[in-house]
Amino acid sequence: MSEPTIYVQKGVTNPDGSIDVTAIFWLTAPSNAVSPNESFQSVAPGVIGQTTLRACMAGTMVEQTYTLGAQPAGWTDAGIEALLVTAYNAAQTALGATNPATAGLVGAGVIGGSWTPVTTTDFYLNPAPTVAVGLAVSLGLQPGATAGKATGYVSTSAQTSVVVAATPVTQPGTNGQRSIVSTSANDAWPSGTGAQQVTVYYLDQNLDSIASEVVNLNGTTPVNLVNTTTAFAELMVVTKVGTLGYNNGTVNLMTGLAGAGSVIMSIAQHAGVGDNTTNVCQHYVAAGRTCVVRSMSSGDGVDAEVFYLTAVNPLVAGTPLVPITEVVNHEAGDNKQFMFPDGLAVVGPALIQLCIRPLASTADTAYGGFRWFES
Fold it and tell me: pLDDT-derived band of residue 107, with 50, 70 and 90 as boundaries?
């Protein structure tokens, strides 16, 4: 979605017919006037997107409120719009002529005894949206924003940290046309008793945005996807079933056409009873967007364990998983939910995953999830 440079925030017609207009300008800062402001908050948060927001935080853009003042009765919308464009151009010219003393100072720090610009992390705690904002996103009232949850489980028998994922996930990382196949002939469109149809959610190699494709299964015969840009698989969900009500076999997303190559991710089954989803506790944050995590939870049957969220930029090879939350403990046979009252913001491109570490080596199954909204 394109982001505005001029936005009319308020227009009032006075009793005498004159008009007062308040607008917001987003101006481009010249290189000699870039002054970062990491605590920046827009006066129109529902209007701009992450590109403008991050530019204002970096100081490469400047948000300015402009009041046109009382205009005589009879002015048309087009006339007022022309005045605002003229005022915007004048403000842009004025900004280009400034040379503030703080330019080049904000964002610098002493490293090794010398002043130098400091590179900040992409993962940060941001003044979070209120519960009302989260509810608005969930109800679809916030344009361009989405909400969701990631859930999964993992079998463990050692005291090592693992991602909560029912089956292994190996992402290609580059665009390609994939295929999907089941281990059961019952998973077939249109009359199979198991899974008949699966929706694959995926992102391209640049993590530009999430997309989806509906695939009609053909049992043990592989079916090629139409898209050629599946680089990172978010999840797969069974969206139509037969009389069983679930996938009868393991449904695998393959790297190559006609079932060739290796498995990217799977919808598991246990003794013929399928999960209907991949149960991988992960979420990809597209480039230019910000994901706000609202809560995380975990539980198991035998072992006590600790759980935490990690984030990594999957576009940078060799980057390790980095914890971005506290490490939360729950007792054996217990479950615990940890809330983020202020929200935990992660800027894309990023991969968020829930990890657990059992405190004993007993064979067990751990469950977990986290909730998020994104804009």
Answer: low
